[in-house]
Amino acid sequence: PFQVYAGLRDNTPVRYDNHRECWDVFRYEDVQYVLKNPKLFSSERDRANASMLTTDPPKHKQLRDLVNQAFTPKAIEALAPRIQEIADELLSPHFSEGRMRLIDDLATPLPVIVIAELIGVPATDRQKFKDWSDALVKGARDDSDEAFQELMEEKKRNQQELASYFTAIMEERRQRPEGDLISILLAAEIEGEKLTAEEVVGFCILLLAAGNETTTNLITNAVRILSEQPELQQQLREHPELIPTAVEETLRYYPPIVAIGRIAKENVELNGQTIQAGEQVISWVGSANRDSAQFDQAEKFVPDRKPNRHMGFGFGIHFCLGAPLARLEARVVLQTMLRQMEDIQLVPETVLQPIQSAFVFGVKEYPIQFT
Ligand code: HEM
């Protein structure tokens, strides 16, 4: 889509799409303006299932503060040895084979296992948990109405199963708190009141929904760049200290999330257009990230780019809570793969199938071979 964005940035930087009935915003400066003004552009969608992602201040900060401590860079850095262990476990069976299914064998299970352990899911339930997590973000098998209906029912059933599972763990942690997120959430209070069981469950489901597929796509998109630009592999092998900036550059160049939605609260003028209160506004961070007004050589992958004010994790008060975790997982994976594998490439003749969501940049499968 990145070629298309370039034309849109130049010709219709802020436009109304009659068909989709929403505004689209393509330039860096305008996207940033939308995301940094929650008073003008609201995240509130679904009052019944309000999560931090879909609430505005002041409620938003109350919810976010509850779990912030678990996601600070320092708290997350402490997970590095465990993430390394999981990455080794998932990768090592494939070293001798010379090929692997990057997504199924590594990029999907890794974030699921990590978040399961953070939340406090016992290792014995991991498979069950992974099936539920996968189902949370599953797409329909085709675009028929029946397939859509079927998917919605499956999702509902799945959410209920997951909710009752979390409820059971909650009961155990109420008796015997541990250091996990469920215990933290059970102890937490907002204005002197404990969270309800539904709120604790909702929090856990938010973390699964927001963190798993996105991290899967970050890992895959990063390896995809390495196989599209093989000279980078040697460069990063010789300079592993550049891996963190290369991960940031992946978030700019191939961001797992390319668009972020808001609703206008008031009539607002943006780049000469008037957006009416109540209208939907889509901020194309995938386009903003390639805006040459913000980035030198915007269409080039520069592994040591610094500064790199990409908006792959969003911007402003809703800036991704899980960013330190996603960065760490991607860093560990790249370090390990580059140490153990050479000439990483997409298996020849593979036809890449994009994920069918306009908001996501990623593929469904990415088989690789290496020496
Ligand atoms: C918010 C991207 C990984 C949890 C966001 C937002 C983006 C994003 C763009 C802003 C949404 C908005 O403004 O409406 C990503 C990407 C990831 C990733 C690209 C991986 C590469 C994770 C992980 C977790 C997580 C691993 C948790 C374990 C969240 C939460 C929010 C959020 C809870 C809402 C924050 C708020 O509303 O204050 N993420 N995310 N994300 N992300 Fe991530």
TrEMBL record:
<keyword id="KW-0408">Iron</keyword>
<dbReference type="InterPro" id="IPR002397">
    <property type="entry name" value="Cyt_P450_B"/>
</dbReference>
<protein>
    <submittedName>
        <fullName>Cytochrome P450</fullName>
    </submittedName>
</protein>
<keyword id="KW-0349">Heme</keyword>
<keyword id="KW-0560">Oxidoreductase</keyword>
<dbReference type="GO" id="GO:0020037">
    <property type="term" value="F:heme binding"/>
</dbReference>
<dbReference type="GO" id="GO:0004497">
    <property type="term" value="F:monooxygenase activity"/>
</dbReference>
<dbReference type="InterPro" id="IPR001128">
    <property type="entry name" value="Cyt_P450"/>
</dbReference>
<dbReference type="GO" id="GO:0005506">
    <property type="term" value="F:iron ion binding"/>
</dbReference>
<keyword id="KW-0503">Monooxygenase</keyword>
<dbReference type="Pfam" id="PF00067">
    <property type="entry name" value="p450"/>
</dbReference>
<dbReference type="InterPro" id="IPR036396">
    <property type="entry name" value="Cyt_P450_sf"/>
</dbReference>
<dbReference type="GO" id="GO:0016705">
    <property type="term" value="F:oxidoreductase activity, acting on paired donors, with incorporation or reduction of molecular oxygen"/>
</dbReference>
<comment type="similarity">
    <text>Belongs to the cytochrome P450 family.</text>
</comment>
<dbReference type="InterPro" id="IPR017972">
    <property type="entry name" value="Cyt_P450_CS"/>
</dbReference>
<keyword id="KW-0479">Metal-binding</keyword>
